[in-house]
Amino acid sequence: MQQRLGTSERADRFYADQVLDHLNARMREFVTRQEMFFLATADRHGECDSTFRAGPPGFVQVLGDRLLAYPEYRGNGVMASIGNLSENPRLGILMIDFTRARIGLHINGRARVVLDEEMRVHYPDLPVDPIPGRRAQLWVLAEVEEAYIHCAKHIPHLQKVPAKERGARAWGTDDFKRKGGDFFGAAAEADRRPLFQRPQHANEHLRGGLHEDVPEPGYGAGPAPVRGPLPSRDDVAAELNGEFLDRVERVLARAQPRPAAEDAPEFRGWFDRRDG
After folding, report:
1. Same domain assignment for residues 63 and 200
2. Are residues 222 and 254 located together in one domain of the fold?
3. Is residue 180 part of a domain?
4. Tens digit of pLDDT for each residue in 70-101?
5. Are 87 and 225 in contact (CB under 8 A)?
6. Second label for 82, Cα 20 to 30 Å away, from 40, 128, 204, 227?
């Protein structure tokens, strides 16, 4: 694409002048000031996920000029990024300072997922956050392979709102409204959708339960993906409340009849999961 669009000379100059294989002193100082970053991962098939991470200034730990670590706090339980990293250790981090320097830093590399207690054996000086919802369950160790600037020209200049005006952050909360509620109306829309029209791969893929070809964890692996069949109705009932089961019954009652061509590609495997 550089050749087709005539940018090869500019790109070569950028790589020569700006792309490092480590974090220099200014980059390390920049990282220690940040309260958030954007994270990109992909699974073993190359299916991508981008997400957002935040914490107090310095929540990303600089452990060396080629090593970073960031904590994984309690979330929605999907573990999309951690699941991806257990299959594919590559990750991309983008830190943007919107309020002070109005500049960005890209960090690309390889990662490994580590339990909090294991991290503290090797790095006993890691801080222990006083807020329970902001205590790490896992850490992601990232080995830096590329570090380079994200230019300022399109970064908006934002102003931080004082805490007393925006209210305290609800770290680790399960409160529906404080987490954003059904802001985009997805839950209401899901209630109206026949079961077999819903994405079939999403949670089964993240669990690793319905895939026969999940590889053994490699370089990037921490805790292995959950294996085995999806939980039974009794298991779900024990874990979740009755409202969930009522909702399942409503959805199944509205599900469309089984098509005659049960071996059609778009339905293959679904019937076994539904009937099971």
Report:
1. no
2. yes
3. no
4. 999 888 788 899 999 999 999 999 999 999 99
5. yes
6. 128
Report d(CA 245, CA 50) in Å as an integer. 31
Tell me the pTM.
Answer: 0.67
Q: How far is Cα 263 from Cα 276, in angstroms, rounded to an integer?
A: 17
Beta bridge partners, 31, equal: none
Q: What is the mean pLDDT of residues 115-144?
A: 90
User: How far is residue 215's CA from residue 211's CA, in Å, rounded to a whole number?
Assistant: 10
Helix then strand then coil, in percent of the chain rounded to 5, is 30, 20, 45
User: Could you tell me if 154 and 82 lie in one domain?
Assistant: yes
Bridge partners of 149?
105
Q: Examine residue 171 and state whether it is found in any structural domain, yes or no.
A: no
CATH number at 161 reads 2.30.110.10
Instruction: Provide CB contacts within 8 A for 97, sequence distance 6+.
Output: 30, 33, 34, 103, 104
66: nearest Cα among 112, 132, 3, 21 = 21
State the total domains in the chain: 2
Domain that holds residue 82: 2-166
At residue 192, the pLDDT reads: 67
26 in a structural domain: yes
**pLDDT digits over 181-220, tens only?**
777 787 777 766 655 555 555 555 545 443 334 343 344 4
Rg (CA), the chain: 22
Of the CA atoms within 13 Å of residue 8, those in its CB half-sphere come to 5
Sequence length of the chain is 276
Same domain, 32 and 113: yes
Q: Do 136 and 238 fall within a single domain?
A: no
CA distances from 125 to 33, 120, 142, 147 (A): 18, 7, 18, 26
CB burial of residue 93 (10 Å; 0-12, 13-18, 19+)? buried
